[in-house]
Amino acid sequence: xxxxxxxxxxxxxxxxxxxxxxxxxxxxxxxxxxxxxxxxxxxxxxxxxxxxxxxxxxxxxxxxxxxxxxxxxxxxxxxxxxxxxxxxxxxxxxxxxxxxxxxxxxxxxxxxxxxxxxxxxxxxxxxxxxxxxxxxxxxxxxxxxxxxxxxxxxxxxxxxxxxxxxxxxxxxxxxxxxxxxxxxxxxxxxxxxxxxxxxxxxxxxxxxxxxxxxxxxxxxxxxxxxxxxxxxxxxxxxxxxxxxxxxxxxxxxxxxxxxxxxxxxxxxxxxxxxxxxxxxxxxxxxxxxxxxxxxxxxxxxxxxxxxxxxxxxxxxxxxxxxxxxxxxxxxxxxxxxxxxxxxxxxxxxxxxxxxxxxx
Length: 359
Ligand code: BMA
Known about the structure:
By secondary structure, the chain is of the alpha/beta class. It contains ten helices and eleven strands. The strands form two sheets. The protein has an eight-stranded parallel barrel. Helix 4 (about 135-140) crosses helix 5 (about 140-160), helix 4 crosses helix 6 (about 195-210) and helix 5 crosses helix 6.
């Protein structure tokens, strides 16, 4: 498989592999190491806080209960932090997220954050798309701009307050304004101009920098694109991004396998080219087959994809406890459990226990 150059990065957080200093630089270097070794860390959204048929227990994880280990990457969602809510949009308490981030870091794993934020105009959720002026007003309207900055400050303070037992900040991947090539979020391609989208990113980064945040590795994650030009159309710039990501789901099961493979190839191919040109890292930031309706999906569909592209990690989405068909990782007794164990055992995938070797 193709291997990325290890150093030569130009992202603001992503400069020196051998003399990593900030928490962000240390995490960026670990991600580069995974990619350079041809390894892919496996990730799951909200993994230890609920699963297919349980919620709120501690010490549980559908991934651990099937593969025998926690995922190497845990994704969390900040949606709600901008409103000072105690829990996120999926009812996960931010105090619990903090505790699990610390636990995941202590076991050698990686934490990542997405952000299904409300908009600062009328507080509507991320999926409110009818108002196509939201991003424009964030950029151009002083009052809305001020409200937006406050939303980002709240996210920044939470991220900046994540510290380990020794008091050091825990590095995390932050992946704002994701799937913007689609049209289902207020920051989508039908909802704002390319210039305004780029300005939204830069403003987010500016506020995080003003807050002194040095533990964030920034991930850019378009939804499926047809080619490199579409992938790069709204790219905010090399100084704002460390990871070239891709969010591509396998919708429709076996009959849509080719559609998924082609979309993953086009999007990860574009991400790989963009990363090579800029000395950045590639990641498969979100994927999955809802309900994992193909019992050998892990080794026959996902593994070949993550082997072909130099993705440092892959994240599958959550196993909802309150929507029986809405899960993307197996659970004990699920049809794909045996195949998932093979995926876990494969030398190309990394789960939490092996992450201590990736420094
Ligand atoms: C979506 C679904 C929603 C959830 C949201 C944020 O893809 O899983 O149910 O609220 O992500 O996690």
